[in-house]
Queue: 2 jobs
Job 1
Amino acid sequence: MKLKVCGLKYSDNIRQVAELNPDYMGFIFYEGSKRFVGEDFVMPLISESIRKAGVFVNASEEYILEKVKKYGLSIVQLHGDESPEFCQKLAIHIPVIKAFGVDENFKLEMLEPYFGHCSFFLFDNKAETFGGSAQPFNWEVLINYNNATPYFIAGGMDLERFRKIDALKLNVYGVDVNSRIEIKPGYKDIIKVIQFRNNIR
């Protein structure tokens, strides 16, 4: 299982997390987020073994590809209302993670138009604002997921919650950790990152 540490913002903290060699590190390019890196963000040097993910919400293809080039992103995460056609078009240039908010109205059939256009899916708790609510969703909706597209689970992910993945026998590709391992928005608690890394590996 892969570890994705998302919502990183501060250079010194980014370097600390990178030293722990997570599989993915996520950087948010959405002004509405408390973890928005800002337009003057300077990307610290990060090992090429770590995939740098840029998180976008309803951004234009031009804006996304500009950030991909500027920061050497290796994958993009679309967390808005992006269409299957948009994902297909963007995937010509870079691998795509398409995020979906899950609530009581979510159905696995909603994913079908995106099949073949995304390298990964990410499932998060549906919130009124984009980017999740730091709360978990009912993972049981994923028990019958049988598509070849691998997926991440996000949403209030902490160690206690993480340990329930095996109990449900979910075929999870990776976990996305963010707010529950923070000291403040955008600044991660290194001890908690280490605990996650050790539990996963």
Job 2
Amino acid sequence: MRLATFNVENMFERASIMNLSDWKEGELVLQDFAVLTNLSEKPQYSMADKKKMLEIMQKRHKGLITSGHSFHIRLNEIRGKLTKKPRNAPVEIAVNGRDDWIGWFELKREIIKEAAIENTARVIREVNGDVFCIIEVENRIAANRFNESVIPKVGGLKYGHVMLIDGNDDRGIDVGIMTRQPFEIQSIVSHVDDIDAEGRIFSRDCPEYKIITPSKNILLVLVNHFKSKGYGLQNDNDIRRKRQAQRVREIYEERLKEGFEYIVIAGDFNDTPKRDPLKPLLGNNSDLVDVMSHPKFVGDGREGTHGNGTKDGKLDYILMSPKVVTRVQNCGIDRRGVWGGKNGDLFPHFPEIKTPKDAASDHAALWVEFNL
């Protein structure tokens, strides 16, 4: 069987801030969105709360007051109005707390360019995994639509099962899995509500998929997308990422004790192997083996999986338990969906990728074949 992981960076639509050329601009929008959301959820609005909401909406997102939406944020008012403008007076917050109106703020989304969607399907067609972990998918409906319409359009084979559990990311960045017959998904366990002393652990989720192989072996696949480096303080991000890695390690060890032998942990960990946040999974005390360090891995001389494939771009992983390692037959990386370098000529890509916006993703796909 062949197992693969690929950060598809959303299949049909994504928050518009994710497509900004300068992430610092997107970070500011996210900060404003977080403040507006948190303040609007309070049972009672203080004068300071109202002043802060108006300040954000008037200075940086003016359209929220005049038309209900700015370039990147939308205000949904289902019952009641958040703001009002009395005659000959400034705009003001019209309600005194959460119970006085029904509505919410949300990030605006935009459709992904069709060529990019089709090139995403080409990556999946060429990698051809029997079990495919997909990262940064907006929801199961989008993933299923992609499977039913786009993969066949580029000559790929549809998957029999497409599963995804909505996670904790407000932007609709989730993780899921697709499997083909005869690889059946027997059960799913979600960890969206896992907490530790600091609070909720996972930025998205760490779903466990129990898959039955034709030989009646059980493969347990944990799909992950750890906290990114792009939003918030670096130290805080590192701490969150380490908490996530530690919890995944705990789940892994728990399943080993329960008798599971064949376990794979796959996805985008948003960090490099030797940094402290990933030590729980990749440190000296770990028996997990990354596919890119396996003797049978066939690479292209580039150590990274993201962007230009540099060493500090090693973000994607397939980690295998010892029993899985003994069954490995082949493994490798596929960069044909990535635009490498300024002119896209660092490594081969699909001929359909003519500009950076046509790229399937900034991430390469990883795959491994094992006899199970």
